[in-house]
Amino acid sequence: MHSRGDMTTALVLLGLLATGFAGWRAGRRVRFFLHLFQLETYKFDRYGRWLASHWTLLVRPSHGAGAALLLGGALGTSMGAPSTVALVVTPAWALAFVSSRRYRSDQEKKPLAFTERMTRLAVPVGLWTLLPVAAGGLYGWTLGTPTGVLWYLGGFLVADLGAPLWVALGAGIMQPVESALQQGFKQQARRRLRNRPGLTVVGITGSYGKTSTKFITAELLRQRYNVYATPSSYNTPMGLCLAVNEHLRPEHQVMVLEYGIRYPGDMDELCDIAAPDASVVTTVGVAHLETMGTQDRIAAEKGTLVERTAAEGPAILNVDDERVAAMAERASGPVWRVSTEGHPAADLTADHIRYDAHGTTFDVTDDTGTTATFETALLGRHNVLNVLLAAAVGRSMGLRLRSMAHAARRLEPVEHRLQLRRQNGLTIIDDAFNSNPVGARNAVEILSEMEGGRRVIVTPGMVELGDRQWAENEAFGRTLAEHNLDLVALVGGDQTRPIQEGLSAAQFPEERVHVFEGLSDAQAFLKQHLHTGDVVLYENDLPDQYEV
Asked: N or C: where does the chain have the smaller number of CB atoms within 10 Å of the terminal CB?
């Protein structure tokens, strides 16, 4: 027979093992919600909406099972049951908390970035997480074994269960600190720009095409100027501050910035940091309808960039978009109009557009009547528009059309935006960056004109389209059917249901449609079924918070 001391030792060892597992599990949950808060741009309203729409992640069956086991074990031992009750409960509780694969960091598409802000946030979140563990441990210490071990484990249960709350509480504590730091960064950026009167700031906004147009503009302007363009999608207030405070150098003559908006008032905040000397507006689409409400409100917000442009500064507008064309009324300086559709009022136009597996070729005619042929590795009609907008910026700053045509040959696709590459005998069109209705249709049109083997699309559809999300995705399904693709791989059964309905309504053959729960499942299927010469379009790849 085992002595009581042996039973106590075994219980303590099991408790240590279980608490180690519990700490690991709680840590993974806290990390998951920290990552989510970062993906939702540290905004409480967005974080709250996400939690409300994914409430099943807040309390999982394992929490109920763990609570029942601990309660039963605590009641049993407190009523004089043998210590073997706790010996059974402790490992059973640990097994109830086998961690879900959804909390695995190696499944993340955009990993958690431990920036200075995230590091600051992690400290109070960690303290909040440890609080119930410490409370359970201290109370359990007063009770002794075996009941005390169960109370200690109960502290970990609360720590695990409260993970989303600890993140919110930690962020609330840090909010005044972050606000003060951000104000300091903004003041520093404004001061640095005031001390650079010879610097030309080119500001670019639009629902689609901002990033591509930014990089194209920078490349064309490098024919004459020393240019700095912000990397990736640095289009938030802190992104602009980082660019101005950390990356801008004395030798830079032109700074090309991207201005992104999600809420009313965002554009004024951005222009307060860096008011543009020249402005570019690409399009007004349906992106961010969830936060902006209507396209007219989006247009009004984006038009603020034109209004805030320096008094004599040019505004470059896409007049094929009527909402963008109307922004000319808000300009105080010269207006340059561009068109890919032959608009009679355009200063720069493009025609004879043709593209193949090597890129796109088109003719550009400028305000002087000069015509030059542009050849670029970029794909799609919308990239023709982006080049036109950039060329108009160049013309407004004294560059000749033919010199810009020469520079256009050096343009490379922005990563995940209609990026063309070869892989294992396949042609891959990578358009995985956030999709929109216009860009998605253009990408499908390009896919349909590709020569070679079968034409395949992999897509989860589009998000953040508000009340129009279902209709736009259903229309996208009809577009896929119209272009008679050979294989449609849809990622996410519920997410892609409107696409499926659009395909069905257009009588697209069911045997050509396959639905997968995750991108990895779709890729595993394609690996077995694709052949040399096939062309695959990856259209959109939802961020982590949409695939939970």
From this structure: N
